[in-house]
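Today's session is about reading a structure prediction critically. Students often jump straight to the picture, but the first step is always the sequence itself: look for stretches that repeat, for charged clusters, for runs of hydrophobic residues. Only then move on to the predicted structure, which in these notes is written as discrete structure tokens rather than atom positions. Here is the chain we will use throughout the hour.
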Amino acid sequence: MTRSHFTNPFDALPNTLPIFPLPGAVLLPGTQLPFNIFEPRYLNMVFDVLGEHRLIGMVQPKPASLHSRKPEVMGTGCAGRISSYCETADGRLLIALSGVCRFDVGEEIPTTRGYRKVVADWSHYQGDYAIEQAKLTERRLLLSRLRIFCDTHRMEIAWNALERMGDGGMVNFLATQLPLEDGDKQVLLEAPDIAARARLLMGMLEPAHRREKRPGRLH
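Below is the predicted structure for this chain, in token form.
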């Protein structure tokens, strides 16, 4: 996964960021998420950022306030750049967010446009701009665990495409795309670097690995 020429430079990231609280929708640098935008407040958000930095902060709501009108959000999210969008005849926007950099959620800023905005602290995450240089010593082990996990869950993966990915891009792709619990995805998001994220991911794949090793497993 190669970072786009149009990606916002680290030193040009904005001090404040609109946020889109959504459970399970975890973005990481180098990955993409598609969205179907139809709520007026989020249409406002998209049009506002298209005229500025094109960045939206993806954050997960805290489970305890999930059904609140204004849920509390987790302390760390990831900013995505609107890399494409399409208008529909019925008034929706189809957008793709490309992961740029993680941020820590700061003070919430009042707005009059319906969506939420926070102070964004990027200071701990400059390393997110170096995922293409990340190297794993346990890539083969991770892929081996992944094959067992996919067999257990009857999942199909484009293995050839996965093999062509660099280590950092592959780990981030798996962390966002595998069917993991929302809490596990948040743990992966908050991992300090690619190596730590890969170790956590292998641990999350381990239960499937243990089932594979049990004698008498049904096929």
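Discussion point for the tutorial: The first helix runs from residue 40 to 50.
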